[in-house]
Design a protein that fits this description.
Belongs to the glycosyl hydrolase 29 family. Its EC number is 3.2.1.51. It holds the Pfam family Alpha_L_fucos. It is built from 12 helices and 22 strands. The protein is of the alpha/beta class. α8 runs parallel beside α9.
């Protein structure tokens, strides 16, 4: 089929793409997900601008997932390392019992809705037969060199109703050993895909993008992944640098990488070194007590979205934070938090490690999903290519525990009355409640700065809980059950008009 061609230019100057534009640009224009900051802005100006920031369609879709999974798998699984060296013998990769349907079934049973595979970790070993490196599954005797973990993974996830994510590490120890990574090459226009000898592709889209030698290698790898394995819903980059001498550096071509992803996978969220999602700042799976999705950002290193404050600051988005960050801020942006943590101590499988307890995982759930973030739980396949039976059981136990913590919403069918900054529920008769779940309609931004939850008891409204932010999801655990018929959410401070999407009441069965 012949595809009409036209030229369009992205927001990053000098990035020209020949082909059919994706939907990403239109999606971003529909919503003001970032607003420029001026040095002259007062605190009132900053708060007003923050109140006007809205998420894109892809960000809203991602936030609704709540629980996502990581699958760290590669040569490290067999060498016992967490960060590979790049000179591993590919033949060490021998997952004789690989069963990605088992992965998908276990993750779905655990309540997860998207899974991200480490297609390329820092060592540079690639889990599919790439045209651009020999450090791949095709160089292993596993399945006679015809294995393709990414193909199996993507097919299995979709077959079980899970969305597909891919992780490609910017660092690449193997390409450093081959003189490509951090070789000092200048950025110059590169044609993507770069066809190789015997290449049977006839791409209907080509891209001319500025990149270093290694940046072009990454672009070609991304092109393969995003054009040959079906729809991708999340592309995950970290900011890792390779283990290279201090006098060497690889400045990543973020603008070109972002452009290619937006063009080939317009619905994919780019995380966590990306414009759509940010790293929460730790690897414990716990968000801040008050986690803002609208935070001050700056642009670094060829369009990389970065924190105006430090990534680990305890306050990223309050009024005080907006003022503190102003000198370094380019924009206020919808940049929600993703909380990554591993079910075991390491990111890759190690036989001597055990999964976290159900109690611990439940604390992580309430500390991430319950604080306006999305949980990204790593569950590493073992040397057989399977999720360990202990981990599979733990995933099921985790999902069952969350279901018991938040069983039927007692507020369903309740009479609801609303007023500016206030929602009142009448349950019809007294019910015991010890969990409260709240959500703003984030299509209209994140507005709540402080609120209280009250129960009508003994003829008066009594405060039972108070907190700061709400965002897409806030779960409050009451210290003891409270029995009442009438309940009220009262916003005591906000940036603009508040739209409440959820006011749920629960009695834990734990």
């Amino acid at each position: 089929m012949t595809v009409s061609r036209r030229l369009f230019v992205t927001a990053a100057a000098g990035l020209a793409v020949t082909g059919v534009p994706g939907r990403a640009a239109a999606l971003d224009r529909d919503r003001c997900y970032r607003i420029p900051v001026s040095p002259d802005d007062t605190e009132a100006d900053l708060v007003r601008k923050a109140s006007q920031v809205r998420p894109t369609a892809r960000q809203i879709a991602w936030q609704s997932l709540e629980r996502t999974a990581f699958l760290h798998f590669g040569v490290n699984t067999f060498t016992g390392l967490e960060w590979g060296t790049g000179d591993e013998d590919p033949d060490v990769f021998q997952p004789a019992g690989l069963d990605t349907d088992q992965w998908a079934a276990a993750l779905k049973d655990g309540g997860f809705r998207l899974a991200i595979l480490t297609v390329k970790h820092h060592d540079g070993f690639v889990l599919y037969p790439s045209r651009y490196t020999d450090h791949t599954v095709a160089s292993s005797s596993w399945r006679d060199g015809r294995g393709d973990v990414l193909r199996s993974f993507a097919d299995s996830m979709r077959r079980h109703g899970l969305k597909v994510g891919v992780y490609l590490s910017p660092a690449d120890e193997n390409q450093y050993l081959h003189g490509v990574y951090a070789n000092g090459s200048a950025r110059s226009p590169r044609t993507i895909p770069t066809l190789v000898a015997g290449d049977d592709r006839t791409p209907d889209r080509s891209f001319t993008l500025p990149a270093t030698d290694y940046g072009a290698h990454m672009l070609n790898t991304l092109y393969e992944v995003l054009t040959e394995y079906g729809p991708v819903d999340e592309v995950w980059f970290d900011g890792a640098q390779g283990h290279i001498p201090p006098d060497k550096v690889e400045s990543y071509d973020w603008d070109s990488w972002y452009t290619l992803v937006r063009s080939l996978a317009p619905d994919a969220a780019i995380a966590v070194t990306g414009p759509d999602l940010r790293w929460v700042g730790n690897e414990s799976g716990i968000a801040r007590e008050d986690e803002w999705s609208v935070i001050p950002v700056k642009e670094n290193q060829y369009g990389r979205t970065d924190w105006a404050l430090s990534y680990d600051t305890p306050d990223e988005g309050s009024r005080a934070a907006l003022v503190k960050a102003q000198p370094a801020t380019d924009h206020l942006q919808w940049w929600p938090a993703e909380c990554d943590v591993s079910i075991r101590d390491g990111w890759f499988y190690h036989a001597d490690q055990q999964p976290k307890s159900v109690d611990y995982l439940t604390e992580i759930f309430f500390g991430s999903v319950g604080r306006n973030a999305v949980l990204l739980l790593n569950v590493p396949p073992d040397t057989d290519g399977l999720l360990h039976p202990t981990d599979v059981v733990r995933l099921r136990e985790f999902r069952e525990r969350v279901d018991r913590e938040l069983p039927r919403d007692l507020a369903q069918g309740a009479h609801r009355t609303t007023a500016p900054g206030r929602v009142t529920l009448d349950l019809g008769h007294e019910r015991e409640v010890d969990r409260v779940r709240l959500a703003e309609d984030i299509r209209h931004g994140q507005q709540v700065e402080d609120f209280v939850v009250e129960a009508f008891r003994d003829g008066t409204w009594t405060e039972v809980a108070a907190a700061g932010t709400i965002g897409a999801s806030r779960i409050l655990l009451l210290p003891s059950p409270v029995r009442a018929r009438r309940w009220r959410l009262r916003v005591t401070r906000s940036r603009s008009a508040v739209r409440v999407a959820e006011f749920g009441l629960y009695r834990s069965e734990v």
